[in-house]
Design a protein that fits this description.
Shape: globular
Bound molecules: 1,3-dihydroxyacetonephosphate
Subunit structure: Homodimer.
Pathway: Carbohydrate degradation; glycolysis; D-glyceraldehyde 3-phosphate from glycerone phosphate: step 1/1; Carbohydrate biosynthesis; gluconeogenesis
GO molecular function, one term: triose-phosphate isomerase activity
Number of strands: 8
Organism: Streptococcus himalayensis
Distance between the termini: 20 Å
Number of helices: 12
Catalytic activity: D-glyceraldehyde 3-phosphate = dihydroxyacetone phosphate
Strand order of the largest sheet: 1-2-3-4-5-6-7-8
Largest sheet: 8 strands, parallel, barrel
Structural class: alpha/beta
Length: 252
């Protein structure tokens, strides 16, 4: 089963609109064809409209880093999935460990967000991943499996086949301490096996699973060589144009 790789930068709460514009100008002519790889930037919501204008007629896609699960209403400070869809946002990252830890998002919230994103015609990138404590206790597969099952609850098989799951061990995020190739493969396969158990093998063969956590130009090729790793979700190494482009060299 061949799945198209998907490399997504997650800028987190970094860059001004002007810096984002400069970045897009610097990379846009060197992004490989969408036929080979999906290349995505997870932009802060404040300048997503400018990002969408900047990437017009390029191979770059734009993700939001979060959204709420209601379309409109009295939810001060939240970002509406309907508004993101009206801006033609392609993907929405949900369930990032920073959102779970700092903003107390639950598996149930993440599941509601996944439904709202599909309702609005966008594609979720759903993050999962265990803490160091859970990893060291040998409970990573069980913990991450439960996160994935809960996030996908009551979605259709077609929806699950089309979405992206990002396995990001919390202990590897922003620490420079990336998972070994074996751990990344084992965990991405475990994530796929949960999809197989819940939705069938055909769906599991289609869903794309990314590894994230201290991915850099120097180590991305070893992850991309794993049979169950279909891409990467990259924080720090996605911020500079040269480094972002170097992440895509594995396609050549
Ligand atoms: P780093 O690549 O900076 O470790 O961040 C990973 C991440 O959290 C992407 O969502």
């Amino acid at each position: 089963m061949s799945r198209k790789p998907i490399i997504a930068g997650n800028w987190k709460m970094n860059k001004t609109a002007a810096e984002a514009r400069e970045f897009v100008e610097a990379v846009k002519l060197n992004i490989p064809s969408n036929e080979l790889v999906d290349t995505v930037i997870g932009s802060p919501a404040l300048f997503i409209e400018g990002m969408k204008k900047g990437v017009r007629n390029t191979e770059l896609k734009v993700a939001a880093q979060n959204c709420y699960f209601e379309d409109f209403g009295a939810f001060t400070g939240e970002n509406s999935p309907a508004t993101l869809a009206a801006l033609e946002v392609d993907y929405v990252i949900i369930g990032h460990s920073e959102r779970r830890d700092y903003f107390h998002e639950t598996d149930e919230d993440i599941n509601k967000k996944a439904h709202a994103i599909f309702k609005n015609g966008m594609t979720p990138i759903i993050c999962c991943g265990e803490s160091l404590e859970t990893y060291e206790a040998g409970k990573a597969e069980e913990f991450v499996g439960a996160q994935v099952s809960a996030a996908l609850k009551d979605l259709t098989a077609d929806q699950v086949a089309s979405l992206v799951l990002a396995y990001e061990p919390i202990w590897a995020i922003g620490t420079g301490k990336s998972a070994t190739q074996d751990d990344a493969q084992k965990m991405c396969k475990a994530v796929r096996d949960v999809v197989a158990a819940d939705f069938g093998q055909e769906v599991a063969d289609k869903v794309r699973v990314q590894y994230g956590g201290s991915v850099k130009p120097e180590n991305i090729a070893e992850y991309m060589a794993c049979p169950d790793v279909d891409g990467a979700l990259v924080g720090g190494a996605s911020l500079e144009a040269d480094s972002f482009l170097a992440l895509l060299d594995f396609v050549k």
